[in-house]
Amino acid sequence: MPVNNRIADMENELTEWRRDIHENPELAYEEKRTASKVAELLRSFGVDEVVEGIGGTGVVGRISNGKGGSVALRADMDALPITEATNCEYSSKNKGKMHACGHDGHTTMLLGAAKYLAETKNFQGDVVLVFQPAEEGFAGAKAMIEDGLFERFPVDEIYGMHNFPNLKEGTLAVAPGPKLAAADNFVIEIKGKGSHGAMPSNSIDPILCASAITQGLQQLVSRNSDPQKTLVVTVASFHSGDANNVIPDSATLTGTVRYYDTSIGDMTRDRFKKIVNGIASAHGAIASVNYIVGYPPTINHERESKFALEVAKEVSGALATDNQTPMMGSEDFSYFLQKKPGAYAWIGNGDSAPLHNPKYDFNDSILTVGSSFLAKIAETCLKK
Predict the structure, then answer these.
(1) Dihedral through CA 46, CA 51, CA 54, CA 58, nearest 10?
(2) Which of 22, 24, 256, 346, CA to CA, is 20 to 30 A from 225?
(3) CA distance 228 to 76
(4) Which residue from 275, 232, 271, 274 is spatially nearest to 255, judged by alpha carbons?
(5) What tens digit of pLDDT does each residue of 312-347 get?
(6) Residues near 211 by Cβ (< 8 Å), separated by ≥ 6?
(7) Main-chain phi, psi angles of 321, to 5 degrees
(8) Cα–Cα distance for residue pair 335/298, rounded to 1 Å
């Protein structure tokens, strides 16, 4: 691969940074050590401006070289509440916390690009380095935006990427359109009437009602949603009762809803409560629905995706592709793409355990590829 030579020379250094971050994982909005390390390294590189504490524990750096445009590059920093099972020499030192999604690698790749760009300044304008907290379900991107990220650091466009297990090592994939789904969540509380299990006629059975609701919600997919569009409705937990001969008073269902098209999301939210309340009423029960709107879909912009693909070809050659498989997972980079044009790419992690798995590990061999890609985006976007 035609990886940038100066960045290739950093391989051992990048690996050391990545493994140190991996050993010391921190959960959402707790990334104090990670943020401090990032800020310290950025200052040591000679980055022109470094600001800590944006959006809680976020760090932003700005490398400036005269007047011109501006581009943002983003990496996420938080870990997951998972106990590591890799048995590697740099395993997590923090019990019950693990970098099981590769954010240690994402942070390191952006640090590598930052060091190179601060040294060479082979661009005209401003490169804004966004080290984001709390991607894993706690909307760190939104927090940074609400904390004035783009007012304090104006940019024309923004780019990021995520490692992709079992995609060939070093592949860079990017294309326009939806790439990650919206992620809504729900909690349904069903109030019935308990009785002895031998006397069901004296009850309003919340288990029977909840079972009917679980099945009924699938009509959102099979009968209410456009079959050419994607919708997933999952009831993931069902809690009720604790004795084998007692019909309980209540039941609780929780789950998630995923979609790419916001019109599908609007329809689902409207029909969801009607279905739940209608079925509950038919059973003589009362339902309470807490429907939580989560991350919006991550939708790559047309021009910026095509631009990123051309850059990817310069870095990864034949391994660059526009075959970027959409996923039903979610990502809060979506909030950035709602505010600024940009694109979110996959980088192949090679053969590995899946994300959010206790045996997952980021592939250090792709650090120089990712750093080169981010640096090349900045140089090309802000060409002298």
Answers:
(1) 30
(2) 346
(3) 33
(4) 232
(5) 999 999 999 999 999 999 999 999 999 999 999 999
(6) none
(7) -150, 155
(8) 8
pLDDT at 2 over 60: no
Three-state SS letters, the chain: CCCCHHHHCCHHHHHHHHHHHHHCCCCCCCCHHHHHHHHHHHHHHCCCEEEEEECCCEEEEEEEECCCEEEEEEEECCCECCCCCCCCCCCCCCCCCECCCCHHHHHHHHHHHHHHHHHHCCCCEEEEEEEECCCCCCCHHHHHHHCCHHHHCCCCEEEEEEEECCCCCCCEECCCEEEECEEEEEEEEEECECEECCCHHHCECHHHHHHHHHHHCCHHHHHHCCCCCCEEEEEEEEECCCCCCEECCEEEEEEEEEECCHHHHHHHHHHHHHHHHHHHHHCCCEEEEEEEEEECCEEECHHHHHHHHHHHHHHHHHHEECCCCCECCCCCHHHHHHHCCEEEEEEECCCCCCCCCCCCCCCHHHHHHHHHHHHHHHHHHCCC
Cα distance between residue 193 and residue 23, in whole Å? 51
C-alpha angle 346-174-2 in degrees, rounded to nearest 5: 80
Q: What is the CA radius of gyration of the chain?
A: 24
Identity at 77, one-letter amino acid code: M
| Partners of 166 in the β-ladder | none
In angstroms, the Cα distances linking 161 to 106, 179, 245, 274, 347 are 8, 11, 53, 39, 7
Phi first, then psi, for residue 78 (nearest 5°) are: -85, 155
Amino acid at 307: F
The pTM score is 0.94
C-alpha distances in Å from residue 348, one per residue of 158, 166, 218, 304: 21, 7, 34, 20
pLDDT digits (tens, 9 = 90+) for 163-219: 999 999 999 999 999 999 999 999 999 999 999 999 999 999 999 999 999 999 999
Q: Write down the mean pLDDT value for the chain.
A: 97
